User: Fold Peptidase M20 from Thalassobaculum fulvum.
Amino acid sequence: MSDPVVDHLLARHDAIVTDLMTLLRMPSVSADPAFARGMDDARRFLLDRLTAIGMENVRLLDGGGQPAVYGDWLHAPGRPTLLVYGHYDVQPPDPLDAWTTPPFEPAIRDGKLFARGASDVKGSTMIAIEAVAALLAVEGCCPVNVKFFLEGEEETGSPSLRAIIGRYRDLLRADGVLSADGGRASRELPTVNTGARGANGLEFTLRTASGDLHSGRYGGAVRNALHEMAALIATLHDRDGRVAVAGFDSDAVPVTDRQRADVAAFPFDEAAFVEEVGAAPHGDPAYSMRERITLRPCLDINGMWGGYLGAGSKTIIPAEAHAKVSVRVVAGQDPRRVVDAVAAHLRRHCPAGVELTFGRIGDGSPASTLAPEHPLVRAAEAVLEAETGRRPIHVRLGASVPITAIFKETMGIDTLMFGFNLPDEPVHAPNEFFRMESIAMGLRAWPAILRRLGEFAPADFRPVT
Amino acid sequence: MSDPVVDHLLARHDAIVTDLMTLLRMPSVSADPAFARGMDDARRFLLDRLTAIGMENVRLLDGGGQPAVYGDWLHAPGRPTLLVYGHYDVQPPDPLDAWTTPPFEPAIRDGKLFARGASDVKGSTMIAIEAVAALLAVEGCCPVNVKFFLEGEEETGSPSLRAIIGRYRDLLRADGVLSADGGRASRELPTVNTGARGANGLEFTLRTASGDLHSGRYGGAVRNALHEMAALIATLHDRDGRVAVAGFDSDAVPVTDRQRADVAAFPFDEAAFVEEVGAAPHGDPAYSMRERITLRPCLDINGMWGGYLGAGSKTIIPAEAHAKVSVRVVAGQDPRRVVDAVAAHLRRHCPAGVELTFGRIGDGSPASTLAPEHPLVRAAEAVLEAETGRRPIHVRLGASVPITAIFKETMGIDTLMFGFNLPDEPVHAPNEFFRMESIAMGLRAWPAILRRLGEFAPADFRPVT
Assistant:
């Protein structure tokens, strides 16, 4: 049964890939001000494309940080209004020398499109835009009202998303969020994401002297900031990899039998999962690996440094050491409280003679949960079952999608992740890629889910109370 | 009693400082290949100066690394031959933003000459050259035979010094070494250095996965290279700061009562020593602080890094972590064995699933000891007593002077450190400076010690057996 919208999209497949590669060449790293130009270029690209496909009110929404790109089509009266979410910022590309081809020079090899941001999430963002474009081009209308909201700070924890929503609350009002960020948990099996861990982080510095000291002159007499950093970080986990911070998981909702059953239903080869990335399994033995990464909080040091990092040797006693810490939190946890518990632990374990200071600590984002009977879940199940012939299973995400929590908190609406990237695409690491096959799959699925959602009434999106 | 040589030197004081500042402007960092140009410039400067003052056989001595600058004056038959040692390489200047004025733009403030290498050791090297220059200019001859040997790899542990000595053994033959590197232990009190700790180092890497991992996807499932690095480094010392490596000090000669008495004779304010640099005292409580830094071995992490070090956050599980380690060793210790003990400790404490690899491990340099009746010691005592009116006391250096050990081992000759820098000049750290008053003091003392040494016969320099 031919679908003219999908036919139109598949005929434009190569042109869409070419456009995507143009966007991928723009180094839109939000974490580092050195990439301001790449951020500008990506915004301009998206403003132009939204205008070209017939969006109205195309503009930047400024909340004091990186502005979001907005555009809407609101000519389906009585139908639900969907905020279609994507983001144009990407993770920093380092370490650069670990990339086979440069991060901002997209390259297709073995059916994979390699580039920073290909999988997270410029690829799926383009799919969403092109699906709406095709519906408008072929049918002249869209089955739902659409508001594109393409964020520029997802990779830095959406620091000004609340400010943007506060300032443009009326413009952004919607019945639900359809997100291009995150989605497939398996290449073989259709899955619907019904939740995600939350996240928060902190950065701290230790100081043991007013400056670096000569190890010949002071070696054996004073504290070394790197020894202190090592000793302090070593207290954060026990030997089995359990987080050893007092109160770290005290507000976490205990894992239920139903959750354990859901996890068990998802085929997951623990050994293969870690072997594939050259790692060894490690973590709390009271939980299976998949339970640990989807249902339990965790703590990781993301960066640690101090002293001389250059070529050769330098016999100093470093006076300063730094660490970046991130936590993932689960249902029930206040991400600010969790990070405060970590900070309190660090203070408690920091010896006299060592100065401990923290960078700004943010509120982070809590975990999120989508009810099984929600129209977003039901629409996704129907589309994925039609696409694959198999009944989708419910999964939760180990990664954090702060926007899901923020849209819920600020606008009371739920978010469905409907991106087409896969878990084995190294999204925050070198050689990130997006599978070419996922592009075609996304181009078939997005018009379908917009149509399914158009069958619901706006009222169906409201939570049952 | 006027001395025409000293008068000549003091009349040239400002010109000598100007020349020294020219040399300090040359960024001769031997540890980092990026500074090759600065190394070249410093060599050319010294070759020109040695030629200008009347040295013969002026040339570079190549041992496969950074060549040494050489020049001799051998027209004092029957008199001792002194190898006059200095070095033209300097420590890396980072962290650059901690310098009040840039490291390679010398600036005089409050009677101090600030620049990387001012104290360690271009200042004292220039004093030695100018003292010989003045003796030749004023008296037409020198009281001893002089061979300048100005090294280019002191700050990287003199990796090719043995090769240079092996290749130029006849050219370098001498009765003793008079070194411009190291000397004064106190500004108030005359001291003669009779020994120094040795040193060695190693660098290692931990790997926990084939690449950095997304902490949302793998957090709680795998090892984190930074957690492993912290845990491993935390095993190297106990809570009191004692080195906890098995066998670390097993070959160290025990501290004798005589050594404890020598240390006690040197006025040393432990609290002031560490307070001055904003540090807290820390280390083996069985020894006084000055015993710890001159008579006991120690171990320091000089650099440690891994993961994301840039601006903002990056939620990765780092796959790789690095550390640079240095040790200081005392009499009786084989510096290679000590580092091997550290490597064995790291291997023993490294858990399964973590790959541990070492960089090249060198032989290091052992501690050195100069006999009290040696002509170099007696000459220094006489000169310093005449200069200060006080009897010099014997001290040992906590820092390492690899060349002292290497000259002893390869040529059987002893080295006296006769530099004029002071312990409070931050030589391996930002804002290194050399006191202006030390320049005048050095310009008076160097002609005097060369004359004193000229009163000995070459045979007096041979060790009593």
Remarks:
- Chain A has 15 helices and 17 strands.
- The mean pLDDT of chain A is 94.
